[in-house]
């Protein structure tokens, strides 16, 4: 028994080391870029968002709002207080919907991580996340709910952790917080990927996730719900799944439903949505991910 355990440990260590060496550089670069944007560019991004309130873009304001959501370096718990301040400043709820939706799905750090998956996957992720924000904003606008759709009464002003007057130390402290927040999940993702390589037969995986038809997309979207804890942790898994035959559209569905239904994000969103709008949000995410997955498989799969 001991010999068997030792052999399995050697195999897992081998797969873990390969995955770790392949992805560590992307993770480290993502940490650095995310911290630089958070420390030096965050205020500028939010000022651009506030300036939308004085523009006459109308419904087309969902486009820059979605782009600014992607550029935002904050997690959902950091984004909601910022969105609350925008709402108190008179920003339309349709623009806030676009901003929050794209911010849930993507950020500069995750963009860097996703480059490890290749140019096609990165482009699919960028395009589908951007249009998800736009679609969310348009739905709120067409529902005639450009005011009163969200309830931000529970949120005060956003807390700023980057307060050290020395820029270099401010950056180092932000990097430290990002490492503490993401490193455990990154290592868990690498370990799960190593276990997948060792114990999941490739033919079974292809039968389950490799199909470009509706069932494969639905399965990929469903798996995103329990597995998605951190964006960086899913990159090693996606890398192995795509290598194992997962359709590109199936991966797109996973990359949408995963962060959109991440349990911590759902808990935060439930506060600002209310029961009825919360279930509308869940339905929107499922339908959009299925539509995008099918469209990507037809065009690029």
Explained architecture:
The protein is mainly α and 301 residues long. It has one domain. Helix content is 78%, strand content 0%. The chain is built from 13 helices and no strands. The chain is globular. The chain starts with a helix and ends with a helix. The relative contact order is 0.12.
Topology:
Layout: H1 2-52, H2 62-71, H3 76-88, H4 93-105, H5 108-114, H6 119-142, H7 167-199, H8 202-209, H9 214-227, H10 231-243, H11 248-260, H12 263-273, H13 275-299
Helix pairs in contact: 1-2, 1-5, 1-7, 2-4, 2-6, 3-4, 4-6, 6-11, 6-13, 7-10, 9-11, 9-13, 11-13
Q: Kindly give the count of domains.
A: 1
State the end-to-end distance. Answer: 44 Å
Proportion of beta-strand residues: under 5%
Shape: globular
* SSE class: mainly alpha
Radius of gyration: 20 Å
Portion of residues within helices: over 70%
How many distinct helices?
A: 13
Question: What is the number of strand segments?
Answer: 0
Kindly state the mean pLDDT as a whole number? 83
**Unreliably modeled segments:** none
Largest sheet: number of strands, sense, barrel closure: none
One letter per element, helices H and strands E, the order comes to HHHHHHHHHHHHH
């Amino acid at each position: 028994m001991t010999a068997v355990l030792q052999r399995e440990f050697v195999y897992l260590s081998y797969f873990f080391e390969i995955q770790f060496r392949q992805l560590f550089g992307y993770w480290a670069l993502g940490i650095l870029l995310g911290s630089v944007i958070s420390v030096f560019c965050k205020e500028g991004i939010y000022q651009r968002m506030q300036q939308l309130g004085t523009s006459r873009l109308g419904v087309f304001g969902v486009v820059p709002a979605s782009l600014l959501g992607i550029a935002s370096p904050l997690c959902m718990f950091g984004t909601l207080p910022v969105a609350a301040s925008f709402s108190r400043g008179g920003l339309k709820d349709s623009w806030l919907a676009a901003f929050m939706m794209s911010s849930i799905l993507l950020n500069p750090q995750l963009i860097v991580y996703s480059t490890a998956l290749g140019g096609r996957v990165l482009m699919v992720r960028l395009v589908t996340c951007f249009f998800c924000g736009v679609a969310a904003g348009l739905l709120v606008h067409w529902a005639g709910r450009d005011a009163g759709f969200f309830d931000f009464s529970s949120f005060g002003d956003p807390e700023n952790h980057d307060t050290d007057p020395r820029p270099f130390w401010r950056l180092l402290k932000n990097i430290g917080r990002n490492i503490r927040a993401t490193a455990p999940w990154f290592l868990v993702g690498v370990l799960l990927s190593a276990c997948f390589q060792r114990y999941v037969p490739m033919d079974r995986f292809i039968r389950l996730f490799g199909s470009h038809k509706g069932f494969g997309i639905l399965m990929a979207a469903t798996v995103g719900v329990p597995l998605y804890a951190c964006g960086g942790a899913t990159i090693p898994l996606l890398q192995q799944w795509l290598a194992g035959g997962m359709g590109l559209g199936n991966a797109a569905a996973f990359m949408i439903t995963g962060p959109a239904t991440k349990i911590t994000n759902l808990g935060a969103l439930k506060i600002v949505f209310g029961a009825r709008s919360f279930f509308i949000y869940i339905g929107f995410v499922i339908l959009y991910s299925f539509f995008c997955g099918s469209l990507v498989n037809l065009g690029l799969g």
